[in-house]
Prior knowledge:
Keywords: Dioxygenase, Iron, Metal-binding, Oxidoreductase
Binding site for Fe cation: 68, 70, 114
Structural class: mainly beta
Pfam family, one: CDO_I
Protein name: Cysteine dioxygenase family protein
Strand content: 35-45%
Order of helices and strands: HEEEEEEEEEEE
Bound molecules: fe (ii) ion
Distance between the termini: 49 Å
Number of strands: 11
Shape: globular
CATH superfamily: Jelly Rolls
Strand order of the largest sheet: 1-2-9-4-7
CATH topology: Jelly Rolls
GO molecular function: ferrous iron binding; oxidoreductase activity, acting on single donors with incorporation of molecular oxygen, incorporation of two atoms of oxygen
CATH architecture: Sandwich
Radius of gyration: 16 Å
Amino acid sequence: MTYEALPDRTLDKRELQALVDDLATRPELWREQVAFSDEERHYASLYRDEYVDVWLLCWTRRNDTGWHDHDISSGAVGVVQGALTESNPRIGGSHLSVTVGAGESFCFGPEHIHRLTGATDDAVSIHAYSPPLWRLGQYDITEDGLMRRISVSYADELRPLDLPVDSSAA
Length: 170
Ligand SMILES: [Fe+2]
């Protein structure tokens, strides 16, 4: 799957993975956008149409999306430099955690809940979503295991939620 041959329809997760794998081999399309910041995750929109959007993200070890889902979108992530950690929440047990290194990619459907953090201070990844991201679910897991979902805009930077402990005051 290449940019130039995108079908006029929603892509499934395998097609999205093929797209990020192809883009990973074409650094001339994204290399100039690479930049890093500890304070806010650096990102750049590479492509967006009616059916798919593609982003370049740059990570240090301080960059953390927090737990989130992608609402109705499937997605794929290809790491092109450094490494990311992908975690999946497990209720009542240890969360899953996998390191994804340069040259590796993964894909997921709308049911997927994860959290991405930089595993190195120079990680670069390419992300594709279909349908294009519009809303996301951002999760907060309290110390006693309560999980809450908040709908956020794709234009808001994902970050760990820091909700007041005493939400009963609201
Ligand atoms: Fe995500």
